[in-house]
Records
---
Amino acid sequence: MKTAKKKNVGINITKTGISFRLWAPNADKVTLIGTFNNWSEDEMINEKDGYWHYFSKTALPGQEYKYVIYNKDQKLVHNDPRSIHFTTSQGSSVIASSNFDWEGDKYVAPPISEQVIYELHIGTFNREDPAINGNFSSVIDKLDYLSELGVTTIELMPISTMIMDRGWGYGIDYIFAVESLYGGHYSFKKFVKEAHSRGIGVVVDVVYNHFGPDSGLDLWRFDGWGNDDYGGIYFYNDWRAQTPWGNTRPDYGRPEVNQYILDNIRMLMHDCHVDGLRVDSTIYMRNVQGHDNDPSNDLPDGWEILQKINKVAKSINPNALMIGEDVGSNEYITKPISDNGTGFSSQWEVYLPSVFRDTLKTDKADQINLSGVLDMLGRRLNNDPFQRVIYLDSHDSAANGSSYFSETISPNNSDSLFARKQALIAATLLLTCPGLPMVFQGQEFLQSGSFSDWQGVDWKKSDKNKKIVDAYKKLIELRKNVLTNSKGLTGANCNVMHFDDTNKVIGYHRWSNGGQGDDVMVIVNFGNNSFVNYSFNVPNDGVWNVRFYSTDKKYINESKNELAESYMAEHGNLSLFLPASTAIVLSQ
């Protein structure tokens, strides 16, 4: 990949005026128009390297501007690709300062082994009127709720300006601007500061595998040039441009496109204080067809830009949580760059939602297959379980023809007793098996239906299913070892010590270093039979305390099952009352 001298592109506000710099290598002439010159054309200086520059002594922050590009007989009027604010997505660029009073924000994220992620969509997470998008302010109103739930990290679906006025966020128009309907840059920074003040980190989903779609995309043939039917300077102009979302894959081999993407990383990590990034569909950045082990379609420039993204992010914040959505489970995505990997901290384990659904769709023993659960407990990348982000629901698995877990296993009745029991088994597995757990918005109170960009989270269910929320709070508390009696759940070790395929019971041991307050045993009865005196192996003799069980009356109103507070293990064996459809967490 070629390199070029890094230039200060976009606007730069100084004491004496404002500098404008634009990349348009095929332009014959470029002019600047705006409110500061009554929309008349001030001709920019050709710097002879593809860039055009103008310094204005009259332009002021808050004023609007655009660029006029001449290429032969074409006259093109464009917004600034690096603008951080627009009047509207179809309006004008606005001169905006990136200054913000962080009031000494010094947030430091906990170790990855102690993190619990909560994925949410700004537009739907908290809105009273279904016709109006949610925004950063409305999400701030729920930060205390998330803090009480115990999550450590919020993962935001994309927040960059969208071509449509409502969407999931993956139809990116301008990567530097924050969606104005969400509140723009200032509101976003306020949101990050408020989250940090509550001990919650913020990870942002970014989209560099494609821009657009091409229809209505301002970057398309930006300076009038494009090869055949392809998109011009920001994109590949051959078969490498082709993606499932249009011919809009950025040209990772162009130094100027590299800088465009990497400067966006710098802005988010440095100017906006985000604590990490989730990079969307990395497999489509490194392979034209989105295939793993497919050399004929590989993009070496794409692999290199992924490495550069991680280098830049971690040069700003060495503890940045960098997540790749690769779907291929390729270990090199999370290998260090020094070992030819791309250097991500972790990657989404996309097959897991189907494991949860397939295993827990029934409680009838003869229909339950536990092979997926066994695989889930044993899977790791580069011998590190925390290189896997594990989840029950996500924006993908709860949509795209599917629905939330509780809706899938109990259609049109996600609050049923069966749905609640199975949901708590799933939650126990999620928060006690090895990996970096993620909860999707509303999952913790059995959100019904499917995720969409028009249906808001039903917060009435958080009251209706408060006991389920309480169970999540307790499981997250255990996962983080808040009471110092479950350190094993932050450890890398897992051993399936008990497997009863006839009765569909699994028992697994989690530990960090082992010993008091560390060793954790999880016993899960997937079937619908209860056992008065069920025996299974444990790693140590002595007293084992029941820290949580999913059919506790605290969490399931209809439960009549009561476990003792503790049980004595002898000769490596422990016996207890094991209710049907129950997950139990014990520690010493």
---
Amino acid sequence: MLSSHLLRSVLPRLLPAVLASALGGAEPAIALGSRRELFVDDFLIDRLTGRAEQQLHHPEPREIAIVHDAPWEGSGSGYHSVFHDGTKYRMYYKAWQLTVTPDQKVNTNEHPLFCCYAESDDGIHWRKPALGLHDFNGSTANNIVIPHGRMGNVSPDGGHPAVFLDDNPAAAPAAKFKAIVRSRSPKGLLALQSADGLRWAPLADAPVITDGAFDSQNLAFWDAAAGVYRAYWRYFTGGVTDEKNWKPTGHRAIRTATSRDFLHWENQRDLTYVDSPSEHLYTNQVKPYHRAPHLLIGFPTRYVERGWSESMRALPEGEHREWRARTSQRYGTALTEGLLMASRDGVHFKRWNEAFLRPGPERPGTWNYGHQYLAWHLVETRSPDDGAPAELSLYATESYWTDRSSALRRYVLRLDGFVSISAPMSGGELVTKPFTFTGRKLSLNFATSAAGSIRVELQDAAGRALPGLALADCEELFGDTVDRPVAWARGKEVGAVAGQVVRLRVALRDADLYSLRFVD
């Protein structure tokens, strides 16, 4: 039986989505309200006809955002947390050096693991401030915020951080920023707090979560839609037979739990997936999508051990790859890439089986274990093109294991641009499930070719076109915009049927529909 707290955490996300069915056994109607809906799952989709399909899109690479080349950083730096805080963008990350030479094993002990801090005014150009908080080799002129060592009565591992700005209205000023970090001893996850994001203190004298593997970026955040904190961490589905060499009997998986106070966690569940095979997933990167916070979007890292082959030997830095493999073959022959998944209840996810962020063109620092770990999470940044809408910026690691530094590259995606309903010029249609809405207008985020188009019809629950809102009445939409209202002949507005159970029929030709929203 589900606990009362689990019901309280899940029902706020589910009950607004489904109304009681009308008399006569009609299909239940989704209570859409005025929230933005994306097509990262099939929640709103009743059927796709013609050549319409859900199309997964991929981030486009941009510049290197930051290089981790300071003496206290290095080639093992990663596990980034990125978020927007007022006029400032903040970044937190693991600082670590992995040294590989032909005549010795991988050396991971050149310096301790730290959590470091960077900031930006635009999310594009980043700086590492000299904070003067913690010593490294006799100097505090560094950007270390969580050092290696004791913090009160606990011993945080600064190399496995996940930091967030807590927008829980009940959060205390001293805990405006919170973090989950791995505990060096005893095993588990520690809860930290900070008033300024720079000076940290423990929230408890012992780990708050102890059941897990934790050798990854484990995280937690405030879920405003459900009114609870959620945690997601690394777990082995079948346990570990050899902890020293991390030999699991099952798969590297993801476990979740909820909390009302960030300290006491309950309702532990393993994530489940709609139609995805069991695969090794290193990170999870789950967080509410800021433009549709009822949707939890994750970017897990897929880990694949490919073994030696001619293709493996042809990948970049082959000699260096062989050096790493002398310590453990997987260090040389494992590959990683970013995936996309989405959930509405925090436990059951639609995970796209195709890569969201592939390793890309072969070049030094790529196609290795540690490549394309996506930062937690995405942020909006300005477009370089005057007058163009803002973009989503995502950040992913490269040059892991190599030389004396690793790097973080920025990628961009259009707003809401994870997945579209797409159709070629020969056409296709989307018909939604029945829903109710509030508002006077329907606004779309879409892109077409110059010859392509989108037209929309509002139907009743039975699929009959509403007078004046039929497909033939709709003015063709074309262009590339994140926010354009749909227009029908004679200025007909959808507000007249707000609150009624309706469907949408959307006809597309050489077009992509990314999201929709009813607005006033």
---
Amino acid sequence: MSYDAPRSRQRMLGIVAVSLFGALFARLWFLQVMTAPEYRVAAETGRVRVITEQAPRGRILDRNGIPIVENRRTILVTVDWQRYTDLDQADQNALLAKLAPLLDQDQTMRTSGTLSSGDPGPLVAAEAVAAPPTSTTVPGAPSVPTTAAPGSVEAPPPPPITPASLKKRLADKRFSHFKPVPVAEDVSEQLEIYLTEHAEEFPTVDVSRATVRHYPYGSLLAHVLGYVGQLDDDELKAFQNEAKPYEVDDDIGKTGIERALERQLRGVPGEVRYEVDPRNRPVRVISREAPVPGNDVFLTIDINLQYLTEKSLAAELTRAKTRQDEDILDRLATFQAPAGSSVVMDPRNGQLLAMASFPTYDPAQFVNGISTAEFRRLADPELAPFHHDPLVNRTISGEYAPGSTWKLFSAYSGLATGQIQPNTVVDDGGSYMVGECGEGCRFQNANAEAHGPVDLQRSLTVSSDVYYYKLGDDLWTRRKEVGDEALQQTWAEWGFGEETGVDLTGERPGRVPTPDWKLSYNRELFPDDEDKVAEFGTWRVGDSAITAIGQGDVTVTPLQLANGYATFANGGTRYEPQLVLQVTEYDSAVVVEGFEPEVLGTVDLPPEWRAPMLEGFKGVTADPKGTAYATFEGFPLDRFPVAAKTGTAQVESKGNSSLFAAFAPADAPRFVAVAVLEQAGYGGDAAAPLVRRTFEPMAIGDGTLAALPPAPLGGEFDVTLEAEVNAPPPSGEAD
């Protein structure tokens, strides 16, 4: 028997034990040392929840620092979609059946004024919020109750809240299912308290307070301000950044300044890190990074002038509907006057002082998301004959035939090409035979009125079409010498046919028709018929003649027209229209970015050309033969002379559009105003009275914006009363 065998077995067992313990210790070392950071992160992730706090957007203020868009607190009722879908069908139905009557009763009481809505608590950075008044006084008129926002598409009374409507809301694709879905906004504090105290009865339901956009002046300036809505996938890709990160259901500027200056207005989101227990319930706050509000944006707009412009626009469209349209065979027919726009700017620097578009809308409708039904009422193309596209900013997107307001630019074409001189006289017998094609080419003045011998100055005062028919005819006849596009090339110097560059989305370029454009357009119309292309696509002398008076295929936006007259008013400098003065830190005087006037080009206007044209424009309002003389009777022209041009654009199968362009004081202009009223009659009958309304407070006062009465909070007025109070008489002059 060998004594070595037990020892060998012991040694083997020892080696095995040591190996096992070595492997165990190696594994423990690997887990505790090598992978410790990884498991630490996993452990932290398991017990920590990070909640993003959205930052308030920056404010939007007018040129004087008056807030036009602020932030306010609101009380939201939300449903956690993930937890809601975990409930069985019976519990879901029971929850909605219990919640809907409470929300509906609260909505009814708030609508009737029995309960107040919203959160009276302090806002971020303690910004003050002034509640819109329930009534106001129209300046210069007796005290009357106000109507809804003028020209806006009024929201209907809120529909009742039912279990079915809540279920539809929860299924709405506008809302992300990764965050609580809002089912009611602006609820009362009483409901907030009740739901909080009875939380166990309403599983998945929560009540929270959020910061949303507030509009102290209602619908005023809606098209310029724009609105905010939930971002989509394309916007998330385009705007995502590390400094101000977005989440999938964040809000973003959709239109207007809210869109154009989104990167400035958006704040830096905050973060709250919670420690949670195994059941995902908060235990304590680990850390908090407060959100940083976005920057404030100061506009060049004067809110008082904006109010005056908007109510004047609404009033004149309302007044136009009471007048008979004598160009319609039905003598009882009145003007439709469904829409219009007006622009006021400073010709000295291109700053926009007011931009009004009618009809308008209330941007508050988009707060917390607009319903599909409400959006359809505003934007459905099939409903356009009824709502007239209230979301469209006609100052930059409306393209109109300029009518006789175009004669400024055609006169310049004649002077620049040497076709006319200021003293060139044309015998205006009321009609003009273009070329030698017979009576079919005889064009007439408005109502075939004869003006006798007219020079450049007189042609503008009395609005002689014959003078400009002949100019267009002569330039086309001389095309071998001056070129086929002599008119169009000079019009381009004023910026027509291209966007102005204003800091808003949706701007249209207008159209300056050329022989090549006409040929191309008709090839698209008749792709398989060269005979029709040759017949309708060939530029002829009549095209030049009709285009020279602002008819035919030429179109401009109201902003382009205003910028053109501003260029003339200041002596030839064409500015990019400026809408933003500066950007500052939130509720601070610290400037983040300043904006200076930008020159886009110049137009050569020697005094020997400009002086007679200026006198012609002054005669429009001051000369008894001027096309707006009757409209400006009683206006203090001696203190505040107005140079202007009326325009009447004929639209196929529709009533005439009324246009008016003016600048004042005529000899040292500080204001340029353009008005375009669709299907409202002659330029002197609708658009000219609008501009008179706009200029009059400044003319009576000290000639500056300081003379304007303050715009009332809420921005409301009685449009019917405004149409009657201090209404300038229509000129009765054809144009």
---
Amino acid sequence: MNGRMENLAPAGNPEALGRAIAAGADAVYLGYALFSARAGAGNFDENALCEAIRLAHLYHVRVYVAVNTLIRDEELPAALDVLRLLASLRADAVLVQDLGLAALCREAVPGLAVHASTQMAIHNAPGVRFCAEKGMKRVVLARECSLEEIARCAKEPAEIEVFGHGAQCVAVSGECLFSSMVGGRSGNRGRCAQPCRLLYTYRGEKGAWLSPRDVCLRDFLPQLEEAGAASVKLEGRLKRPEYVAVVAGSYRRGIDGLQQNAFAPADEEEAGGLRQIFHRGGFMRGYAFGAEDADVIDPDRVSHGGVPLGEVLQVKGRLATLRVTKALHDGDQLRLLTFDGDAELIYSGPEIPAGGAALLRLREDVRCAAGDAVMRLTDSRQLEEARALPLPSIPVRMALTAIPGQPLSLEVTDGESRARLTGETVQQAQRRALTEEEAEKPLSMTGGTAFALTGLTLETRDAFVPASELKRLRREALEALAEARIEAFARPESPQLQPEPIVLPEGPAPDALIFRRAEQLKGAPEGLRLIWRPEDYRIEALEKALEETLPEGVWLHLPTVCGSDELEALHAFALRRRDRLGGVVLDSPGQLGLRWELPFGAGMGIPVTNRRTLAFLLGEGCAFVTASPELNARELAVLCEGQPPVLLPAYGRTRLMLLHHCPARTYLGLRSGHAACRLCDEGQPDSLRCHPFLTDRMGERYPLLRQRLSEGCRVELYNLLPTRYPAAVRRLGCGLLTALTDEKDFDHLHEKCTAGHWNRGVE
């Protein structure tokens, strides 16, 4: 890093990579053909990845490769091969979610830089500290972090990357199982089906209650820089290359303004261009800058909103006359907002200036009327300009030496790297000696390369040099300079080592019960490890329950997501109440960044899908870990071989999402006051407690439960049916975990259940 905030662009395919470089990206992130959390993007095979890295490095653009899915045991050899390939191609970093894969990378290819993917759900300073201690160079922070939390994280010894623009997952990334549980397509495997973008009913009103607006932090770049963000990530590996060009170009202008002490917010033309290329529900300022609830969610539309273009003036037969407020171009894609719903059409005709009238031919199925609004979804002129944006030219200077009797010599340099080639012995000119003008013409013919000649020095005396020889030297010298630039920019080659074999302790964990309220313990068998996952994590509520209602030796299950202050307060509480607590259950990898001076285990918020992750966590001191609910029976049998201390989630509703917005507050249109909200505490009729369900299009109800923290509530969306593994799970020899959510007590478990992924697994 050169000290300036990095402009990090997506590259879902080679075309998008070219547009990112042309628009001024400092770095790109892309996916390899295997183990990428965006399996639907074009991604890169080995040859394409090699070419992509070479092209990017030629322009001194860094390449980060996403290998950020959860890895199964049988996939570990292939994943190791991918890490070795990235090291050999000298990728600038690998993005990783799986803790076992991160440990494997450190052992086998220690020279390959590791970035903690946002899928790892690192969201506070102890989490960043943990990642740095485990050799990770950078942490891609969870999108839910406040600006204050970003600043605290930036003080830790790892680079901080923040999301700056584009689509946002509504759930905490890496903690979402909705697509997995309802359709067998796992977001943790790169195959999310995006059930969050579907319509649900809340309090009788149908809407996209789980669909967030796109974020745009273009005008907040100074605050992000001041907070210490090293990189601003632009979302969009599934977006078209033109989108990459427009967005990366806008953020390039903003970051350059910062560097020149002349930052200016995007003007109307630039801001309008960002809206035109894509936005969902209008842009929001993100959690970092105070977006809450109704500011976050747009229940009205899940697709691109476009920009207002005008309205329908009149309709005659199949022709509609439009009055346009912006210039209309041949090939523009339009949306008519009609009484019967939206209608999308392509305009074909002459360019119409702003204020003019245009004729639009309607399809047979389209009905519209005077006064209907017209939106432009794509601007053909904008797309053409984005496609035509040239790759930057690298300025070079040349020095040609042509002295009769000596070898012809050409040196080229970009100011950092250089290359020098020699040719045949120079002949004495018989009639007309080489002049600077005659030398410059063939040497400046750099078309088809990345270079442009900006200066030539000629040392010669009565020399004759054929133009063909000058062209050959130019071509070969520029090829050598390109290699020198690539070599100078690339990371050093990493040693390739053999990883240590996996060694696991044997001895199963005892069966465990997760409960929310003390009365749910009624009917529970003796000998279970009791794990308390309270609704209210405020310290006074924890103290009261621990003193008045809970049995001694209960384990406290930590919340998955909380800021540094909240986590440190919970840490202090756990240490202070070691006399009553049996231990704590950590529910985020970052919680390993604190020293727990009492027993601790790993909950489902720290996903475990392979034995390397299991070994890593046990090596960190975990008394037990919890297997991922995405594993099938065969995969669980491999994980549990030798009966290590693993808990298998054998009964309970699976949490599908952890939400930062509250559907109840969103329904009410509330945009501030989230942390201080008292609707549920006071039993208000508009509270989430009184309306605790989302209903899908099939009429199925998904429970909503709150987690109350001092910094505000998180909302948990649970599966409509509990998961219950068949009796055969007992034969795996590991501890079984029962989790109670809305059950009255242990005697009243739900009879209607699903087998989860026991039989089917996930894609």
